[in-house]
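[Target chain]
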Amino acid sequence: MRSLHPPPPERSAELRRRFVEEARSERPDLATLCLLIGAAADGTLDEAGIDAAQIELDALAGRLPYRPGTPRAWASALRELLGERCGFHGAQGDYQRLESSLLHEVLRRRRGLPILLSVVWLEVARRAGAPVYGVGLPGHFVVGLGEAGATAEAKPAASEADTRGEATPERQVLVDPFEGGRVLTGADTELLVAGATGSPLEPSMLVPADPLNVVLRVLNNIRAWAEARPERSDVSLWALDLSLLLPSRPAELRYERARLLVRRGNFLEGADELEAYAEVVAAVDEPAADRIRDEARAARALLN
């Protein structure tokens, strides 16, 4: 397992500029944003490497049959190519590796977290013309094929074909790239949700995931990896910085970044950011703002 380190400051600044530009474009490109995250994490990923990753996604899409047909036919074709022939899948050990959250590394290793494997499925299927979208189930990311928002394995209303005893095609199929593209039944999906939340599956959980929400979820996974490894607080910092560049993100990330700066010994900048965040919070919760100001004073005291 190689140790990944961010690029020099000049390169990092350029990557952030491009990240902002792509994230605020009319149609943000998921693969591009994920590859920019990879370049922010891995100083060895240069422009040629980014281009090579995009070319590989194009090449994989070119290996799919031409428009195989129904959602299930698309699922079968993707599983055969990506899961079986190319060997994309996941394992529990992948949660312990930063590479599992970086698209260029997932393309190289054929291994990754559910959401990054799903990005591979999404980008390959989209390039091939499939009706595809991400589905951010609680605790597990999967891919939908077919009619967005339809209940998994659901059937449309009775038709003339039904009255003749013919099979009615599914409106939506969910697949799990972490398991090599296994098609999920409605019961499978309910079990995934129940295992993560203890609650039943709700139709709202099957809504297609917005690309920027996918990107934020990828960055959240990177931060979770780094938080378990205090010696890699540098990873937490750049992941927070990218998260804060997204057009829509939780305001609490500013507070998290300020506290991280203090933990890293940057007491003055951390205190400044705590005070700035306290002013935002004061508009809705003055006692909470006072507690944050106390943290800022404590951080400044560490300078003495």
